[in-house]
Amino acid sequence: MSDDEIRDILLTTRRIAVVGASARPERPSYGVAGFLVGRGYAVTPVNPGLAGGVLHGAAVAPSLDAAGPLDMVDVFRRSEEAGAVVDEAIRLGARSVWLQLGVRDDAAGERARAAGLRFVQDRCPVIEWRRLGLPGRIDAA
To answer: Around Cβ 110, how many Cβ atoms within 10 Å?
Structure first.
């Protein structure tokens, strides 16, 4: 995926579901969710074990289905579990799916792209945001 495509995804997305969100500050999903909230995104953490709680000011959803409406699904799951999340994102009408660093599923990517979704894998939106020198907030773009 080109830098222009990554930039466009990050600057046109508004609502993000973070699947596998953690309440533990030392976990990458906690930091990424907080970063995205700080950039102006409406973030819905998704974690059945934390459902009903609040993380970064947002109610934690028990499932991706309960997190909608959404533009992007940011996935913090093992590669072998990512495909099911991608399939649900397709079913729910997400515009893009982002698999975090170390998470790859080429077959799921093919399904997502065939359904018209943008698909990013093995990357982190925080790293890409900083690398591309994007503005402090999406509403400043």
So the answer is: 12
Residues 82-105 have a mean pLDDT of 97
CA–CA gap between residue 87 and residue 35 (Å, rounded): 26
- Rounded CA-CA distance 9/65 in Å is 21
- Cβ partners under 8 Å of residue 88, min gap 6: 64, 65, 73
Name the residue with tokens 């990050």.
10
Q: CA-CA distance, 7 to 103, in Å (whole number)? A: 20
Give the start-end residues of each E strand in the chain.
15-19, 42-46, 54-55, 58-59, 72-75, 96-99, 118-120
Q: Model pTM?
A: 0.95
